[in-house]
Structures are given as C-alpha cells and as structure tokens.
Amino acid sequence: MIKGLIEVILYVQDMAAQVAFYRDTLGLDVLYPQGLTDFRDEYWVTLDTGACVLALHGGGQGRLGQDTPKIVFGVEEIHNARIQLRERGLELGEVRSAAPGIWVCDGFDPEGNPISIESHA
User: Does residue 98 contact residue 118 with C-beta atoms inside 8 Å?
Assistant: First the structure.
C-alpha cells in the first residue's frame, strides 16, 4: 500500500532565504518552479533530494507543533489506502484536493507529528 516517502514539507517564513540555502548552499536542484531568480513571492517550491522531494511551503509563522515538517507517503489509490489505514487504527481526515490531480489525506503519528498520504491522478 505505502510506496515510500515521497515528500517532506517544510513550512517557511522567508521563501527567498530558504531557497537560497537549499539550492545554493546545499546544492539541491529546484524542481518547481523552474527558471526563476526571485522566489520571495512563491508559496510552493520543490527541490530534488533524490529519493523524495523537499517542499518549501510559504506561510510558516513559527508556530511550534503547527509549522513542523510533514511527512508525506505516496499511495496508489488514496480512498482505498485511507480505508485500510483507518482499519489499522490511524485517524485520518477527509480526502481533499491539494492541487489539480493531487489528492491528500492528513493525520498524525503517535507523538502528534503531522503525516499525509497522497496520490496523483
């Protein structure tokens, strides 16, 4: 059912500084959006880390426990995966569309860390 870790979402307050760090300092390639030199007005930037994507999500406000990284697991079919995981005791929210063709369902691990399952149409 789980296909592996596909994404880690890091909520950020200063997108330009974070992109500069991960791209220029650490050497990660920007996957989306490509061709920009100024990222200060971007709300979503993804970087290639190899096995999964590091997604920088704008709007972070330094809220401990709310702006923590979110671990996202890929699934083939989100509705069936949600049913199976709920049967195993994982409380998950409703399936929602995060973007065209992208379906997400959110929950928490036993210590309250946010996780999601995600499928792409």
Answer: yes
Residues contacting 49, CB < 8 A, separation 6+: 8, 28
| Mean pLDDT for the stretch of residues 29-56 | 93
What is the reported pTM?
0.70
Helix (H) or strand (E) holding 117: strand 114-120
Cα gap 107→87, rounded to integer Å: 14
Give the gyration radius of the chain's Cα atoms. Answer: 15
Domain 2-120, second-level architecture: Roll (3.10)
- In the sheet with 29-32, reading across from the earlier edge strand, the strands are 29-32, 44-48, 53-58, 2-12, 70-75, 114-120, 102-108, 96-99
How far is CA 63 from each of CA 11, 32, 67, 92, rounded to the nearest angstrom?
10, 26, 5, 22
The helix/strand/coil state of 49 is coil
Return mean pLDDT, the chain: 89
Distance, in Å, from the CA atom of 78 to the CA atom of 62, rounded to the nearest integer, reads 30
